[in-house]
Automatic annotation (TrEMBL):
This is DMT family protein. It holds the Pfam family DMT_6. The keyword Transmembrane applies. Keywords: Membrane, Transmembrane, Transmembrane helix.
């Protein structure tokens, strides 16, 4: 069950991370007040979102880490996180940035990451 909670927390963390890293690009297009923010304002906005990312990521890693009683070693945690990041990003970019397209080479890259997860868990 700890593994499930770890992955769930990593998903929530990555939603905040993706919004912090890329959300400001969409907000600039949609809100005139955001477009006029100076760069430091955009950075502070992103840091605000990143705070919540860390509120979920740190407990996820602590809970999921084998030496803390979790089911995953450090490499497994990192690879899981990277795959979640890619999945969340693809969903985000598809919904928020309709002009961006998901191409065959992107799908192949995703398959390689899934293969990486498989290999990391292989004994």
């Amino acid at each position: 069950m700890q593994g499930f909670y770890t992955i769930l927390l990593l998903i929530v963390s990555n939603i905040f991370m993706t919004c912090a890293w890329y959300g400001h690009l969409k907000m600039k297009q949609q809100f005139s007040w955001f477009e006029h923010l100076p760069l430091i304002g955009v950075i502070l906005f992103s840091w605000f979102l990143a705070f919540f990312e860390y509120c979920f990521q740190v407990p996820a890693n602590r809970m999921g880490f084998r030496e803390n009683g979790g089911p995953f070693n450090l490499i497994q945690l990192k690879v899981i996180q990277e795959v979640i990041t890619l999945v969340v990003f693809v969903a985000f970019s598809t919904v928020a940035f309709k002009g961006e397209s998901f191409k065959w080479n992107h799908a192949l890259a995703c398959l390689f990451l899934v293969a990486a997860v498989y290999l990391v868990f292989k004994k």
